[in-house]
Design brief:
Shape of chain A: globular
Number of domains of chain A: 2
Strand content of chain B: under 5%
Largest sheet of chain A: none
Order of helices and strands of chain B: HH
CATH topology of the largest domain in chain A: Growth Hormone, Chain: A
Radius of gyration of chain B: 21 Å
Oligomer: heterodimer
Keywords (chain B): Membrane, Transmembrane, Transmembrane helix
Largest sheet of chain B: none
Number of helices of chain A: 16
Distance between the termini of chain B: 53 Å
Helix content of chain B: 55-70%
Chain lengths: 458, 57
């Protein structure tokens, strides 16, 4: 399988870097389906006749495995290159669907856990980090754009999978419960093709490659940007890693606070809002989540990563406070505030790899990103626990309407303030963690091609 | 290949000849993939906008 070797993915001279993002998007669009898992929830409940919790475990397992496989597979991915990693991701993700379909067919829920949750979850983690790491290497001049492009695909994956899955469930059988197996098999086939194309088309730049006419900014131009690389083993020994872990954890926890309860929340705030309108609100938030990934991450290239997180966390905390104080006054205000909050949530996901690249260099940024994604897994557990726990407790006290969510909103405001402080404490990584400098392998000027121009060789 | 590792024979070969197949087919496939992922994204966004429009109905 030499075709999967890292050496076989090195781009030839003059390769147009804009040919690489669709490969990354193909993988992220596929694995982003995980956020549309809720479409399977009711059919699975009907098929297995079990509790909501039992079915919710499938999604939770997948997200936990995402964090774990990204954390432990990142180093392997850096060593073996993105094509092998994407191929492994495709095998796991598609196998996950096939095994889960078998579990549904046999009526064995544990096989669904094993398939979608465990095997599929491994595919998620490896598939998440490899395109991000690769695009960062192609866009050293615009890492925020690069990570925004890739991670936008993950958000977009849910937008594609949700209506597609709903249509397949309707089309294959009289009831959705009877259509789960053919729907899963169809999705497996679609994702197998798409991810294989992504793996085939991925390229890494040659050593020392730089965009034409671009030179790394002078030292001091941006104090946060490192001109040296830090290996993952050293990165996890720096305070910066743990500060960014807190930043990601708090940003994700706060975003989940809205996303988890979006539909019931708007209906409780405004009793006149119907279930159909609430579904529209959820759709709008999905757009905010996806759009924020690209727009805010790209903006961070101009604004700087630290300032961007000051905005996500600081402005986010203020918006949460406004939501708690004034959210119930008008639907328009409520929608506008939550829209911006969720766009910050998406932006936080997309900007973190670029922040890591600034601090630790691009040498093992994929592996470091993988380790940091454990914050996502932790937030995926903490966020819903906080929101649901408080809402349940208030409900038991007989509280209704907007007041049901006020403690949650105030708590999330506090969570964001913690993240804000952590971000303010981030300083450049100490030189003792840097790898020794080696002479750069710079592509001769004559061999460079202008960025974005399609050449004969591309 | 990242800049942290020295070049080996395979890498050198990869730098002097097309990485996989001819360059024109690679470019055509990459552009086709752009079309596919762009269409999928457009489909997802359009479906979501239709869903979201219920909020303003």
């Amino acid at each position: 399988m030499r075709v999967l070797d890292k050496s076989r993915t090195v781009a030839p001279r003059g390769y147009n870097r804009w040919l690489v993002p669709p490969a990354a998007l193909a993988v992220h669009l596929s694995i982003g389906q995980v956020y549309a898992f809720s479409v399977f929830k009711n059919p699975l409940l009907e098929r297995f006749g079990t509790s909501h919790t039992s079915v919710a475990v499938i999604f939770s397992m997948a997200i936990v495995m995402l964090g774990l496989s990204a954390a432990f597979g990142g180093k392997w991915m850096e060593r073996n290159g993105p094509r092998k990693a994407m191929a492994l991701s495709a095998v796991c993700w598609v196998s996950g669907f096939l095994v889960a379909a078998l579990g549904v067919q046999l009526g064995q829920l544990w096989i669904v856990y094993l398939g979608y949750g465990l095997i599929g979850g491994i595919g998620l983690g490896i598939g998440y980090i490899s395109p991000v790491s690769t695009l960062i290497k192609w866009f050293p001049d615009r890492p925020g754009l690069a990570t925004g492009l890739a991670i936008m695909g993950f958000g977009g994956g849910a937008l594609v999978a949700s209506p597609l899955t709903a249509r397949l469930l309707e089309a294959y059988a009289p009831t959705p419960a009877q259509a789960i197996v053919p729907t899963m098999l169809t999705l497996a086939a679609v994702y197998a093709v798409l991810m294989t194309c992504g793996a085939a088309m991925i390229r890494v730049p040659a050593p020392g490659w730089r965009p034409a006419g671009w030179t790394p900014p002078a030292r001091g131009a941006n104090a946060m940007q490192s001109h040296a690389d830090v290996r993952v083993g050293n990165a996890v020994r720096t305070p910066q890693f743990y500060l960014l872990w807190i930043v990601l954890f708090t940003n994700v926890t706060a975003g989940i606070g809205i996303l988890e309860q979006a539909s019931p929340m708007i209906q409780d705030f405004f009793p006149a809002v119907t279930a159909a309108t609430a579904a529209g609100f959820v759709g709008l938030l999905s757009l905010a989540n996806m759009g924020g990934r690209f727009v805010w991450s790209t903006t961070s290239d101009k604004l700087g990563r630290k300032r961007t997180y000051i905005m996500y966390l600081g402005v986010g905390a203020v918006l949460y406070a406004f939501l708690a104080a004034l959210g119930a006054s008008a639907v328009g205000l409520f929608v506008a505030l939550t829209f911006v909050i969720v766009s910050f949530y998406g932006g936080g996901f997309a900007t973190i790899p670029a922040y890591l690249k600034d601090l630790f260099g691009q040498l093992e940024v994929g592996a470091i990103h993988g380790r940091l994604l454990t914050a996502w897994s932790a937030a995926g557990i903490a966020g819903p626990l906080i929101v649901n726990g408080i809402a349940d407790a208030r409900s038991a006290q007989g509280v209704t309407g907007a007041a049901l969510y006020l403690p949650s909103l105030v708590t999330m405001c506090g969570v964001l303030v913690v993240g804000f402080v952590a971000n303010m404490l981030v300083r450049p990584v100490a030189a003792r963690f840097h790898e020794p400098e080696t002479p750069a392998l710079v592509v001769p000027q004559a061999d460079r091609v202008p960025v974005g121009v399609v050449t004969e060789e591309s | 290949m990242t800049s942290d590792q020295p070049l080996d024979a395979n890498d050198t070969a990869a730098l002097t000849e097309p990485a996989a197949g001819g360059s024109a087919p690679v470019r055509a496939l990459a552009i086709a993939l752009w079309v596919v992922v762009g269409s999928l994204l457009a489909y997802g966004i359009a479906q979501t906008v239709i869903k979201a429009s219920a909020l303003f109905a």
